[in-house]
Amino acid sequence: MGSPEEERGRHRDEDQVNVTLTKGFWLGETEVTEGQWRKLMEIST
After folding, report:
1. Scanning 2, 3, 34, 42, which has its CA 20 to 30 A from the CA of 14?
2. DSSP for the chain, written as a single string
3. Contact residues for 11 (Cβ-Cβ < 8 A; gap 6+)
């Protein structure tokens, strides 16, 4: 997690850390905008 030191636009306070995912997760085929997510969550709650 995090970006490599040579990545353009990286901030100095970003550190790379190893992350292990311990649970499964769903991954969508296309990205979702914040507006779409908010609209979905309004319906779901």
Report:
1. 34
2. ----TTSTT--TT---------S-----SS---HHHHHHHHHHH-
3. none
Buried b (16+ CB within 10 A) or exposed e, 14-44: eeeeeeeeeeeeeeeeeeeeeeeeeeeeeee
The pLDDT assigned to 2 comes to 84
Q: Which pLDDT belongs to residue 45?
A: 59
**What residue type is 37 in one-letter code?**
W
Q: 11 is written with which tokens?
A: 């901030």
Residues of the chain below pLDDT 50: none
